[in-house]
Design goal:
Helix content: 25-40%
Oligomer: single chain
Radius of gyration: 26 Å
Distance between the termini: 49 Å
Structural class: alpha/beta
Largest sheet: 7 strands, mixed
Number of helices: 19
């Protein structure tokens, strides 16, 4: 039975049909049987005269051609011959090549990947790239080649190649002559061998501007007003991978001036900013968030960035810093902007101190943007919405993901943030000191848009799909 959805080739198949030939003739090797190579071919290409004879001469073997639709062939080519898209031949990407790791990193960086996952299982090994938050298969390896790859990466990261029982963390400074960036290396022993994750710290956060992150016009104005205050605390909430670091660094870029002393304590330092004094957490020697904060107060800072508020001690010190005339930026794990306040109260911070020091609280999530080359406008089926979503009748059609070679057949290209911003003025401060009952209705009366409302607005504008905002709609409150 012939596959109809996805074709993932092994290394031998790719050797038989090189990338240049595959893309030129729009063919995909299916299987080699009894000395005859079976190929999927674009049905339009099959109509060309003498195409079979031409391919037999080019490949040097007998072939059998099987017609397939254009979309199927394009998807299979993009999945298996990705290097052709970035103008480099897939056939040169061989584990035996001494530059394999460097070429792998360059390939990942070229397709906007944030992470490279190198994994080993009982019978196979694979390399996956995380593009726009989702993992995609890119390369299959022979299991016999895997140990050599692990050792190459360990040597580049300055790690112990003899240690295979314990996790290891390292760093690679990558310099290809054209681009320079850091790579964070994490190695984890698993049942069948060591798994490696390479986090590419390619400067996306440091190059981002606040105006381009996804703030609505009113939310951007409110946020900029909160960071222009000379003191106070600004808190950004959201789960891991929601873009909090990008928002923080974009804010620091705006605050980083010759007349300002900016200090940060981070775990880890993901990006470097010229003119900012950045400190790395080192728990093993007692350098924690709270320990660094105490020292910061003796360093005459104007702006303090704390990577994350994890405990009551750090929370209390951050509030104290804000009270004594400093502008403090930090992140915290909560589900909403208002939930940040409740979380800090649970940590032991008195509500009246929060009311006097909090400039703004933000919640954010990341969603993928639809690919503008292939998105489709279609009616929405009722069963696509979450079961308890009450506003499904307000939107009857929207854009959906389709997939093309421009977006590697994911249907999405790039990401944007969804924000919920609560600016804290005297009126909100008074509300914080009270019980805060009826917060949803209160903030709605102030014109504060929830994450759900902002996401629905982005859906109406055609920038994303229901599938991307679905997790936000599950928690619909109205």
């Amino acid at each position: 039975m012939l596959p109809t959805e996805e074709v993932l080739l092994d290394k031998e198949s790719i050797k038989v049909v090189p990338a240049e030939v595959a893309w030129y003739y729009k063919i995909i090797p299916y299987k080699n049987e009894n000395g005859t190579l079976q190929l999927f071919i674009d049905e339009e290409e099959l109509e060309k005269p003498d195409i079979k004879r031409e391919l037999e001469i080019a490949l040097g073997v007998d072939i059998r051609l099987i017609a397939k639709g254009h979309d199927f062939i394009e998807r299979a080519l993009a999945r298996n011959y990705v290097k052709d898209i970035t103008s480099t031949s897939q056939s040169t990407l061989s584990i035996s090549n001494k530059n394999f790791v460097s070429e792998l990193i360059q390939d990942a960086q070229a397709v906007r990947s944030s992470d490279i996952h190198i994994e080993v299982y009982e019978q196979k090994c694979r390399i996956r790239f995380r593009i726009d938050g989702k993992l995609i298969d890119r390369i299959r390896l022979e299991k016999s080649e895997y140990p050599a790859l692990v050792n190459k990466i360990k040597i580049m990261a300055g790690l112990d190649i003899s240690e295979k029982r314990l996790p290891q963390d390292g760093r690679i400074f990558f310099d290809s002559g054209e681009v320079k960036f850091d790579i964070r290396v994490s190695i984890l022993p698993t049942l069948h061998g060591e798994k490696i994750v390479l986090r590419i710290l390619g400067g996306a956060a440091t190059s981002a501007e606040l105006d381009a992150l996804g703030f609505s016009e009113i939310d951007l104005l409110r946020y900029k007003e909160s960071i222009r205050k000379p003191n106070g605390i600004i808190l950004i909430s959201g789960p891991t991978g929601s873009g909090k670091t990008t928002t923080l660094y974009s804010t620091l870029k705006l605050l980083n001036k010759e007349t300002t002393n900016v200090v940060t304590i981070e775990d880890p330092i993901e990006y470097t900013l010229e003119g900012v004094n950045q400190v790395q957490v080192k728990e093993e020697i007692g350098l924690s968030f709270s320990g660094a904060l105490r020292t910061f107060l003796r360093q005459d800072p104007d702006v303090i960035m704390v990577g994350e508020i994890r405990d009551s001690e750090t929370a209390s010190l951050a509030i104290r810093a804000a009270l004594t005339g400093h502008l403090v930026l930090s992140t915290i794990h909560t589900n909403s902007a208002w939930g940040t306040i409740a979380r800090l109260v649970d940590m032991g911070v008195p509500a009246f101190l929060l009311a006097n020091t909090l400039n703004a609280t933000l919640a954010q999530r990341l969603i993928r943007r639809l690919c503008v080359s292939c998105k489709e406008y279609k009616p929405i089926r009722d069963d696509v919405w979450p079961q308890n979503f009450k506003r499904k009748n307000l939107i009857t059609a929207c854009y959906h993901a389709k997939g093309c070679k421009e977006c590697f057949f994911t249907g999405y290209r790039g990401r944007m943030a969804v924000y919920e911003v609560i600016p804290v003025d005297s009126q909100v401060s008074e509300f914080i000191v009270t019980s805060g009952e009826g917060s949803s209705e209160y903030f709605a009366s102030l014109g504060v848009k929830t994450l759900q409302e902002t996401a629905l607005g982005i859906l109406r504008e055609g920038e994303t799909s229901i599938e991307e905002i679905y997790p936000l709609l599950i928690d619909e409150q109205y």
